[in-house]
Amino acid sequence: MADGIFIVFEGGDGVGKSTQTSLLAEWLADQGREVVVTLEPGGTAIGATLRDLVLNPSWGDVSPRAEALMYAADKAQHVYEVVLPALKRGAVVISDRYVDSALAYQGAGRELDPDRVEQLNRWATRDLLPDLTVLLDLDPSLGVAGIAEKDRLEGAGDALHQRARELFLSLAERDPGHYLVLAAREPIDEIAAAVRERVASLLSPA
Ligand SMILES: Nc1ncnc2c1ncn2[C@@H]1O[C@H](COP(=O)(O)OP(=O)(O)O)[C@@H](O)[C@H]1O
Ligand SMILES: [Mg+2]
Fold it and tell me: Does ligand 1 come within 6 angstroms of the Cβ of 66?
């Protein structure tokens, strides 16, 4: 479906996804690659509105199914408008979160049927899978718990975040060839170096 390289950073809130996304993007740009840095939810104009709908605590009691559908709608528009066109141009696309977040938060977190959440999200994203997912793993009590002003999902409670962490890890275990799991509180430059090493192997396969 595409000629570029699709890299995703996953993990809990506050684990360092944005930090590592920028460092990797800088390095790839130095290599002369076209890099598109994007995020879910919110990587498009429609997505920015959906992001407010899912994350703004003022909406109160949101149905878990409505939440899952809004996230899936964000992903559908994101893949259609941003990710696939960039991959077709041959760019490296780096997304801060993707389908695994829906499986972790709406599937495991909200306790919806994980197979259905997966089917919904695969349909929404036209079955586009990342070439590599970097999972930054951290105990939520050291990550999201420290965020002062929490959005609706960040404030959803420790048990939800623990379930999400376990689900992220199980997805990585299921498919090690497409995942790199790193402990998120190692020094920032060491994590960045490990990511670069793995990404380099995608740029020029041995
Ligand atoms: N490896 C690390 N060790 C300690 N602190 C980190 C590390 N990586 C990022 N941070 C810090 O953690 C905070 C959250 O990082 P951020 O990249 O915004 O996380 P996320 O995008 O996953 O929510 C920032 O203050 C950042 O500087
Ligand atoms: Mg971030």
Answer: no
The domain defined by 5-203 folds into Rossmann fold (3.40.50)
Question: Residue 134 in contact with residue 182, Cβ under 8 Å?
Answer: yes
d(CA 119, CA 90): 27
User: Using 50, 70 and 90 to split pLDDT, how confident is the model at 205?
Assistant: low
Q: Using a 6 Å cutoff on CB, does residue 29 contact ligand 1?
A: no
| C-beta 19 within 6 A of ligand 1 | yes
At which residue do the structure tokens 């570029």 appear? Answer: 4
Q: What is the pTM (predicted TM-score) of this model?
A: 0.96
Residue 6, strand partner residues: 93
Predicted confidence band of residue 125 (pLDDT cuts 50, 70, 90):
very high
Q: How far apart are CA 55 and CA 75, in angstroms?
A: 15
* Cβ pair 152, 62 in contact under 8 A: yes
How many Å is the maximal CA-CA distance in the chain? 51
Task: Count Cβ atoms below 10 Å from residue 204 Cβ, excluding itself.
Answer: 6
Work out the average pLDDT over 164-184: 98
Query: Which ligand lies nearest the alpha carbon of 136?
Result: 1
**Cβ–Cβ contacts within 10 Å for residue 157, how many?**
11
143-169 pLDDT, tens digit per residue, is 899 999 999 999 989 999 999 999 999
